[in-house]
Design a protein that fits this description.
Structural class of chain A: alpha/beta
Oligomer: homodimer
Largest interface: A-B, 56 and 57 residues
Strand content of chain A: 15-25%
Chain lengths: ~220, ~220
């Protein structure tokens, strides 16, 4: 399912479990964007701090479509398809795929929801819900989180349907034999997305693994 | 409607129109948070860049409830009240008020939607829609924007109902005789919200006006 060697996959897994970020670039001709990626099980407030300072994009939680469905969530593009007004807002972005957004949430225990500590708490609690043995996950989710909040949940439709960062990093979790529970943010430069060369430079100067979409999905 | 002198209001209006941010602290005992605030009509990609680097919170567009209603939008707390599952996610945050979120949008012309240039473009187009003479604003909005996107729209319920940053800055626009079209982001410190003292220091060292909720709403 990928071009990555067994050794590369083990290095990726080691970094994810250690709370070390990876840099994942999608494809030339698509978004042409590099995302900073953490494993949801290794998030601390310092990871959120790094995501907002060194990446700068939207800090999102990524899981699979089935995992999200198990806690009661659906794509907003699906939810709003039948809304008398909002259905007209559902359009394909310029890069071609429908957005992966499901819901913006906070854990009930947070203060304002936006600080590094609060966002890390929301994500940690969501990760625990996704990976713990809980009988009724939907009920647990609805009781312990609220919306609208400050952490967007993105869900992977699978790489056969969409080739965005959401699907790439969900697949990366699978390759590393980890639950689909990842945290991503776009790396931004001055004005525009950080270009590929600068994202590679950032990765090498911080000793981070740099991956591109073609390595992750090449059969 | 406020404790501010005529001269203070004129200085606030001058800074807003110049694209200079203000720092607005809410209240001791509420969120205890300082937001960086720009006027929507003076946003450039450099303002978005400053909001994400020096403030660090969620970069949101603020308008009034009536203005939002004119383009077809409603509070998500209202929209989801009748949803079979999502209604259970509607809860009051720890600071007491229901969230002001309506919709996350992008302008149709943007690339990925998240870069400084893209977010500034979405906001500029939204500001123009809000302030230009357009016969059918709802139709124009639905044709020229899509959702879910990267710029959250917050709407003021009015200071008699809610005393959050959304209502404070919408009221500030009124005091300055400007349309309710503002852009805000929470100022974050290491881990937590930036404390009041540090927010005041930031304001004074950057020659920015610092306001607190009590000055804005004192009758």
């Amino acid at each position: 399912m990928s071009d990555l060697s067994r050794e590369s996959v083990l290095n990726i897994k080691r970094d994810l479990l250690n709370g070390t970020p990876l840099i994942v670039y999608d494809f030339d001709g698509r978004e042409e964007e590099a995302d900073m990626v953490f494993y949801g099980g290794a998030i601390s407030w310092k990871s959120i701090n790094l995501l907002r300072k060194d990446a700068g994009g939207l800090i999102c939680y990524v899981t699979g479509k089935e995992e999200a469905s198990a806690i009661g969530l659906n794509f907003l593009t699906e939810e709003w398809k039948t809304h008398p007004i909002y259905r007209d807002l559902i359009k394909r972005p310029s890069y071609g795929d429908y957005p992966s957004f499901m819901m913006w949430i906070n854990h009930v225990s947070v203060s304002t929801g936006i600080s590094d500590i609060d966002r890390a708490k929301t994500i940690k609690e969501l990760h625990n819900l996704m990976t713990d043995h809980i009988t009724n996950k939907e009920e647990f989710f609805l009781n312990n989180f609220y919306a609208p909040g400050h952490v967007p949940i993105l869900a992977s439709r699978g790489l056969d349907i969409r080739r965005g960062h959401t699907e790439l990093v969900a697949h990366l979790a699978e390759l590393a034999d980890l639950p689909k529970s990842m945290v991503i943010a776009e790396m931004l430069g001055e004005g525009k997305s950080l270009d590929r060369r600068k994202a590679e430079l950032y990765a090498s100067s911080h000793n981070l693994i740099f991956l591109e979409g073609n390595e992750i999905i090449k059969e």
